[in-house]
Amino acid sequence: MQLTAKASLNHALLISICTPQFKGDEATESLAELARLVTTLGFKVVGTQSQKQSSTQKVNVLGEGKLIEIARLTGNKGEVEDDSEGEYSLDDMPLSEIPSEDLPFACADVVVFDCDLTPSQLRNVENQLGVEVFDRTGIIIEIFSRHARTKTAKLQVEIARLNYVAPRLRETSCGDRERQMGKGAGETTLELNRRKVRDQLADLKRELVNVQDEMQGRRTQRSDLFCVALIGYTNAGKSSMMRAITGSDVVGENKLFATLDTTVRALYPTTQPRILVSDTVGFIKKLPHDLVASFHSTLAEAHDASLLLYVVDASDPSFRTQLEVVHEVLGEVGVEESKKLLVLNKSDKLSIEQQQALMTEFPDAMMTSALNPNDVSKLHQYIVEVSQQEMIEDEIIVPYTTKGIIGEIRSTMSVTKEEYEYDHVKLTVRANAIDLEKLKKRMLSS
Ligand SMILES: Nc1nc2c(ncn2[C@@H]2O[C@H](COP(=O)(O)OP(=O)(O)OP(=O)(O)O)[C@@H](O)[C@H]2O)c(=O)[nH]1
Ligand SMILES: [Mg+2]
Questions:
Q1: What are the b/e assignments for 205-231, b being 16+ CB within 10 Å?
Q2: Closest residue CA from atom 6 of ligand 1
């Protein structure tokens, strides 16, 4: 299998393997999500198939009969021998979001499994069907590769991609050549390819450490400010909310994993001191382990945040399980639970009754629509209030002879009163205790 999803419109057939551990609604929701992932990649979903299996471990993943059925739907291009008669339906697990069309028979040229396959399973199924086969992780990594914009995201995704591709490289592209060229020469090619990937990975990891050091430096500079992080499942509306509460140009898009980098902006209308808001990468079920690890640093913003806004798409019936995924991934990357607020977003897509039911179910949550300016102001106000709760009031005497301190006070603290005396100004401020302590120490030593 190669990760070479073509730019042209591929026609994808999705396959769900239902096991005793993975079936029913869970399997249907997951398949609908796979359809959105595949569409994000630019493929057209032409049908779905499911099969009950005791596990996903079979050599060809599917049973013999099902494989023949799929081979017919993909034009019998592989090794599967089809001597049966009759036609098969493209959809045996219809997805409401996919418009049904009159498609020509045998029109799928890509097969996507909604589970992870081993490199040898991928190779086997590809050989049997003679079309390109992807598994769920392959699709997610491909999307991440395409959406990465900044240097950090590109490095992180490339590391994950190489880790994913490495074993497939060994078992697919080298296998045939190895046989053709004889053992010695084959081993050399294999070794060479392995070393190339290892070297590439080592280089990328070194580069990533450098970039991350720079990012850590920037975060330390900001550590005096109150920080809010928007976190949640992909497509929940984090970037849209970010744009609304910071007046920024962060793009929200109706595709999965639109955001791969953490973006930081100041809350707008601005406050004194400024409050910073960060938008983070979205989560998804069965997020590949390498990607979780690689987004450790991207999520460092959430780690440092004083307030976490858990944004969910409340109009998505599966948002409760999505929220569990968010908790799980945050647990894995070690984000401490700071103060948090559940934001039930996309309320404009819900009826008043549905909104009321949700508020009864989640009494501490805030119901919002990123499209509604009143809701945006409500969230803005909430953030400001929480930031102020963390502050204490104090008086600072600044002699006129001290230089630079007043500017610093104004940028990091909220000045509520100014009294000008003969040789000093007395400022009443609201600030966090740590900042006040630091400032006083500095003033004493200067
Ligand atoms: N109707 C409605 N649509 C919304 C709302 N908030 C966001 N959207 C839409 O939902 C889609 C996803 O929004 P994004 O803001 O990109 O979502 P995200 O959480 O940043 O997604 P990722 O970056 O993929 O993690 C876009 O098409 C938005 O226009 C809302 O409150 N109501
Ligand atoms: Mg986003």
A1: eebbeebbeebeeebeeeebbbbbbbb
A2: 237
Please, what sign has the CA dihedral across residues 398, 403, 404, 407? positive
The atom number, within ligand 1, closest to the CA of 236 reads 19
pLDDT in tens, 364-406: 999 999 999 999 999 999 999 998 887 888 999 999 888 788 8
414-420 and 424-432 beta bridge pairing: antiparallel
Answer yes or no: is the C-beta of 369 below 6 A from any ligand 1 atom: yes
What is the distance between the alpha carbons of residues 24 and 123, in angstroms, rounded to a whole number? 28
C-alpha 37/C-alpha 16 separation (Å) is 14
Dihedral (Cα; 148, 142, 169, 295), 10-degree rounding? 50
Q: Write out the residues surrounding ion ligand 2, Cβ under 5 A.
A: 238-239, 258-259
According to DSSP, the β-strands at 110-113 and 11-18 are: parallel
Angle (nearest 5°) at CA 207 between 203 and 212: 145
CA of 445 to the centre of ligand 1 (A): 50
Q: Is residue 153 within 6 Å of ligand 1 at its C-beta? A: no
Q: Which ligand is nearest to the CA of 241?
A: 1
Please report which ligand is nearest the Cα atom of 349.
1
